[in-house]
Amino acid sequence: MKLKYFSFLFLALCLFFSCQKKETSKTTINQNLLVDLNKLSNEIIQFQKLVDRNASPNEIVEQFKKSRLFYKKVEWAIEYFIPETARFMNGPALDEMELEENRSFEPHGFQVIEDMIYPEYKIEDKENVIRELNIFQSNIKQLKTTFEVITISDDYVLDALEQNIFRVIALGITGFDSPILQSSIPEAGESLLSISKPLEIINSDNKSLVDLKKLIAAAQQYCKENNNFNAFDRAFFITEYLNPISKKIKTFQKELNIKNVKKTSPLKPEIETLFDKNAFDVNAFVLSKDYNYTTDKAKLGEKLFYDTNLSKNNDRSCASCHHPEKAFTDGLKTNVSLTGSNLARNTPTLTYASLQNAQFWDMRQLDLEKQSVDVIQNKDEMHGSMDAIHAKILLNNEYISLFKKAFPKTSKPEAWQIQNAIASYVRSLNAFDSRFDEYMRGNKNALNNQEIEGMNLFMGKAKCATCHFTPLFNGTVPPSYSKSEHEVIGTPQDVSGKKLSVDQGRYLYNKMPQLVGAFKTPTVRNAAITAPYMHNGVFKTLEEVVDFYNKGGGQGLGYEVENQTLPFDELKMTKMEEKALVAFMKTLTDKKYQ
């Protein structure tokens, strides 16, 4: 009996220590990342060797592609936890600018190297390529040092992985970070594969994980079998793979009762896909919690928006230039000043304006509150006075009642609340109910074949989505949405197309040569009814806009635009493709304007 007891005890102790050993030897998220970073470092070393021994251009390009694939395995963590370093590893090959101090920093990383080695690698660029690779290795070392010491909890891992899916949708499959080689499709597949391991580390026994891994494997296989950048069916890939994967990750999270990360973010933490109707939180773009959106503020703001008493002569309101039936534009090339002269710029739509980090074509104001004051006090537009408006409101009982409801913590209306109320009304103008939105939420009949082709062109061959990011279709960069981009495209001065626009755009406020002719990237949502287009209203139709981009913008037309950020090569779209592209843009119209 004692022998059996001791045998059982010995077996139990063996199992206990075996389990303990297994538990302590379990790979952590950090360890897994360090292993992948070492692999990436080895690929960069191999890259350096090839360049150093003057290997053939083809060998160098192939090693570059291979190195990028290894980067995609760790991109989900680098972009999320250390975005400042990510910018100089795989950011755009454009100067990084600190506008407050009028300073710029030269870019580094894969996209800079890509420009050096493709379409033709020249031996005189050897030293520059080696320099970039050395910088890249230094960044890898920095990443390894960081991941060795930081703690990564499960909730942050899931948030990072979900953002990675959104990154693949909005940036990965559009060619945003592979603009020349266009190796985005196989890279998207590799990026998706990086999801499985962290989830296994969190809980390998989860019942949803098996199905999720199968779905990821199928998505990667689809990328392998359909790796032609221009022909890739992004509409199918998003709806059949990426959206379902995003939902599965959320299911995994719920089944393990892992809470959402508490943070201020333009994307609401509870969403299942990037295309959920209420995916975006306008409060992420406000100055402080005091400025947060409420329906009562929006109701008050609507009344103020249509009140002509905001102007000096009591004859012009916000709605005088932003007509609701035209998606809050005016249909004019440029609006007319109070004295009857033409203003310099086209009136932009206010729909989805709240989902940007800067306002006006030249981005001179950072929020909607300052935007409204700028317009009201502008001598050519409304020539009003905030002090005078405030005084009028204090004498108006109806307004006082609305202000009390909108701002219950204050005893009487305050000047800042006027701005906040108008801004809140503008924040209510995001419907997300176009036919495109319906399609992305599962209604396959919402778009016809031509429109789906147009969507694939928009996110692929036509390169529209590398500046107008899905699903906002403006220049607010996903998936963090922490900055809004400007572009230099070389817009013509008039319809003759013989002269470049003289408007210097953002350069007027930030005297940096890169900003001459730079303008905010506006949303394409509701573009079908917000003609004419561009900062100066030079194009009357979407067809004219598409033709301009198809020719390569200003440089393509022969203008001297040395700082043009738009690719200046012809897109070589056929007339049928141009029609399909326009057809797709028309699907972005909200229901109330259809």
UniProtKB/TrEMBL annotation:
Sample GO molecular function, one term: peroxidase activity
Pfam families (UniProt xref): CCP_MauG
Location(s) in or outside the cell: Cell envelope
Domain called Cytochrome c: residue spans: 296-430, 449-589
Domain of life where this protein originates: Bacteria
Signal peptide residue numbers: 1-21
Keywords: Heme, Iron, Metal-binding, Oxidoreductase, Peroxidase, Signal
Gene3D superfamilies: Cytochrome c-like domain, M75 peptidase, HXXE motif
InterPro entries: Cyt_c-like_dom (IPR009056), Cyt_c-like_dom_sf (IPR036909), Cytochrome_c_Peroxidase/MauG (IPR051395), Di-haem_cyt_c_peroxidsae (IPR004852), Imelysin_sf (IPR038352)
Name of the featured protein: Cytochrome-c peroxidase
